[in-house]
Predict the 3D structure of the following.
Amino acid sequence: MTRERLTVPEQNVREYAHELAYKLACEQLASIENIEKQCRKSGAKYIRAEKSVVIDYLNETYRISVADGKVALTGAEGEVPMRDKLLILHYFTQAKGTPLTNTLITFKELVDGINYYPTFYKRAIQPIVNQFGKEPHRLPDVAEVLGGHKADYGDIAVTINAFKHVPITPVLWRGDEELSPEGNIMFDSTISDYLPTEDITVLCEIIAWKLVRFLKTGGDTAVKR
């Protein structure tokens, strides 16, 4: 009798990891003794009568149920994607309330940023460069769907307030006959007081692909999620 090797589908492993992370995030939410104080740190609003937290994320408003950690998009039905739920919960529970310094840093300056930069570049920077590199002037208009505004960096840049205290700034440099277009993503130096490096990678990947999608659809708000 031969012994067959059992394998677990990668999708199932990822879903299990997300569910475990969500459970831990809910436990961390439940452990917060002063929700109103945490709201002040994160820039959220506490609705005492509903025992819920109202928080802005990528130009949309969400509600977190303090009792069970459920996250819902206000004024809309349907399930919030798990990655967005985790980002919202992690930001709210981990926010330290540190004032922005307006000093920008790159991913390489984050904890373990140098080690993970190749992955970050592939997942978050490269999609923006590939889609906007030849027509960077379109980036500000597309970024408006996420509440973004033009910034004075590189040849063209925008700043998108992913959360109240988490500005994300994609930057592009135009290419020419000799050089290909290039890009980067910059952060306020306080970002690690709000999100860990892994979450920053996920957040920037989400932003990048939303920008690409909006570019292809003309910024149709019907496909914002």
Notes: The helical segments are 10-30, 35-42, 82-94, 113-132, 139-143, 197-217. Residues 157 and 171 are 4 Å apart (CA to CA). The chain has two domains: 10-94, 104-223.
